[in-house]
Amino acid sequence: MDRLWMNVVPGVLLGLALVGCDPSTDKEDAAGVDDEEGTDGADGTDGSDGTDGTDGTDGVETPVPSSITVEVADSGEVGEVLPVVVEVRDQFGEPIDAEWQLAVDHEGTSFDPEVGLSLLADGVYVVRAVLVDNPEISDEDGPLTVDSNGPWITLSSPTAGAWLEPGIVRVEGQVSDAVSGIASLTVQGVEVVPDGTGAFSVDLEAPSGPFSVRVEAVDGDANVADVGVGVMVGDAAPLGEIRSEGIELLLTSTVLDQLMNERAEALNPLLVTLLVASYNPLYQVSTGLYSYTANVTGVTWDTLAASVVPGTGEFVVTFTFTNLEITVDQRVVIGVTPYTSVGTFSDTVTRVDIPVIARGVAEGEYVLELDVSSITFTSPTWNGGTISGPSGTPLDVAALVGPDLLSAMSGVLGPEIEGALADFVLEASPTVLGQTVSYLGEVNGIESYPGGIVLEFDSDVGGPAPVEDLPVVPGSLLLPGDPPGAFPTSQALGFSVSLDLVNRLLHTAWAGGALNMVLTNDDLGLDPSLIGLVFPGATTLNLDLSSDLPPAIVSEGTDIFVRMPLLSVAATGMLDGGTGDVPLADAQVFVEAPVSLAVSPSGGMEAVFGTANLSVEVAPTEPGGVSAAEALEDRLGAVAAPLVSSLLPSIEVFQPAVPGLNIRPETLGLGGSDQSWIVAECSLY
Predict the structure, then answer these.
(1) The whole model's pTM is what?
(2) 685: confidence class by pLDDT, cuts 50, 70, 90
(3) What is the mean pLDDT of residues 212-238?
(4) Are 683 and 495 in contact (CB under 8 A)?
(5) Sorting pLDDT into bands at 50, 70 and 90, what band is 109?
(6) In the chain, which segments carry CATH 3.15.20.10?
(7) How confident is the model at residue 391 (pLDDT cuts 50, 70, 90)?
(8) How many CB atoms lie within 10 A of CB 588?
(9) Is the separation of the CB atoms in 127 and 140 below 8 Å?
(10) What is the pLDDT of residues 308-349, one digit of tens each?
């Protein structure tokens, strides 16, 4: 049996007959002449006596080639070596030496008798073996499928870097595979069937935030290819405007009592006296026989305590006086003769209840409406001095002084209540993505719940001036969801910070050029062997980073992620023996990193970024470059992942600060209707 094993080497063979070699030592020529004496050809002579030929004089027929077979594997990869078996048999079915030719009907192969058949390009091949002396005797084997590339995918919608309205995102594109066809196609993990031309279209429900549209296709040879584009989905808040929301401070009764008591302890009796006296006379009567006038001249007490009872829509502030004493100057005129006396009204425990309702009057504005509705005396006593009252009738001073005292308390305690709640100013200057940004928050709303009073703050964010040549985007991302309000807490108070505010900080840092940088080989500090592994032949590597969309933080259930939807990476470097940098790769990267919430060493609310996961997209320039692009994506991702992770330092989102209170966050989590707020339960120390 003449069995030729051939290995593949580069070259091209299209419809071209390559002559195969017979390795035996007895090689015949086309005329049947051998290398010995005599003739052994068509005349039937064998080169000796000439009587043993085709005339059958001795009844023995000369063996001649009558069939040929060729065998080759049914699949291979570009660059792979495949064995080929060719066998020629005579009319008796026995192997025989004969001259044959080999042909392949596709370019992208090469043949060398000493090596074999080489596969250099994808395609479907048929290998054909033919007898040289009788071309009608032939055999072919195939198809031999060479498919080293995944499908060719192009996306026409959406475009990379687009900012899309929240809701449905339409994904449209084209997929093809000229070699083995398309076995399956998925968009965002959902199977999609393209039409006969390879076109596909599907609508996706995209959540608000950075969104990576991923399309994956598998061909008939199980090669996989995918493409992706990064977009932003959702509403936006323009930079430079003061937002009417972003921070909320939950004050439970424990803190409210403390705040109000601080105000009560600082209350000046003289001020109360003046306010009560402003309603003089306390009592006045005049008849034809006499006139009587009573005026308050002093208000004192031993202690004044405050407490707050929050409720739905309103809260009640109660001030309790001990040993309240009100001094009253009395004057009676009978005829023309005046009589004066100093009387005193006293009570052991006096309680003033002040219901308070906060009403919004405009965007970011509110008023407190105080209804000083009740005053309760425990054991009122009146000592009228030498004058007991007009016509000697004892005065009902409790009834007389009550309304005036209520009015005075409204004037005195009302501002104290409002001041205790409205005098908060929250500000910080965290470092975000290497940029110093700032925010300032002032109270612009108050809501009352059974669990406490919630102060609502506006937020004004500042930072470096925007750099030139950045893409124009609508603003910073706005996530859906209502704030947590008075969330349940076992601690004294709670802070709530919207992810929208955090995204404004990230956006401000991005606009200041935080993600636009050029990192040299020295900055990267990469081992040259690693550079050569990623980019064969390269000895240095420089990365030019830019981002067409700002990063943003989003939540999914109880998990938080920071995502960069479109980070562009241009790699250049010097090749071995070269003198200057040359382009090595251009890629688009979608970055996602988990975020955990923690209490910083300084007692702040901190967002800690974990190791970044990268989806790297290197666009091939033609269908034959799909596999090379996919391999480069993996290698480039391995190099870029630690670099990108280093760009995401922790952010101290908030340092809780309330005048007169020492606060420390104890537990951090997510809250609000869509889990789009960071909530912190804080203790007092």
Answers:
(1) 0.78
(2) confident
(3) 93
(4) no
(5) confident
(6) 451-684
(7) low
(8) 21
(9) yes
(10) 999 999 999 999 999 999 999 989 888 888 989 898 989 999
Which tokens belong to 351? 């309680």
Tokens 């955090």 identify what position? 502
For residue 95, cis peptide bond before it (omega within 30 degrees of 0):
no
Give the span between the Cα atoms of 333 and 588, in whole angstroms. 97
Decide if pLDDT at 139 tops 80: yes
Residue 334 buriedness (CB in 10 A; 0-12 / 13-18 / 19+): exposed
E strand segments, 109-257: 109-112, 116-119, 123-131, 138-146, 152-157, 163-164, 167-176, 182-187, 190-191, 199-206, 209-219, 224-233, 235-237, 243-251
**What CATH number should be reported for the domain whose range is 253-422?**
3.15.10
Q: Does domain 152-233 have CATH number 2.60.40.10?
A: yes
Looking at the domain that runs over 18-146, which CATH code has it been given? 2.60.40
Name 304's Cβ contacts closer than 8 Å, sequence gap at least 6. Answer: 264, 265, 267, 319, 320, 321, 322
> Residue 390's pLDDT is what?
61
Can you give the pLDDT at residue 659?
Answer: 66
Q: How far apart are CA 367 and CA 388, in angstroms?
A: 44
pLDDT tops 50 at residue 3 = no
Distance CA 622, CA 619 (A): 9
Span 245-259, average pLDDT: 89
* Distance (Å) of CA 445 to CA 95, 201, 358, 368: 99, 47, 8, 10
Query: What pLDDT, on the 0 to 100 scale, is given for residue 312?
Result: 92
**Contact 335/287 with Cβ under 8 angstroms?**
no
Residue the block writes with tokens 């570009």:
78
User: Residue 511 and residue 505: Cα distance in Å, rounded?
Assistant: 10
Burial label, 456 (beta-carbon count in 10 A; 0-12, 13-18, 19+): buried
Tokens 């399956």 correspond to 184
Protein fold of 451-684: Bactericidal permeability-increasing protein; domain 2 (3.15.20)
Q: Which tokens go with 450?
A: 């059974």
Q: How far apart are CA 40 and CA 31, in angstroms?
A: 10
pLDDT of residue 658: 67
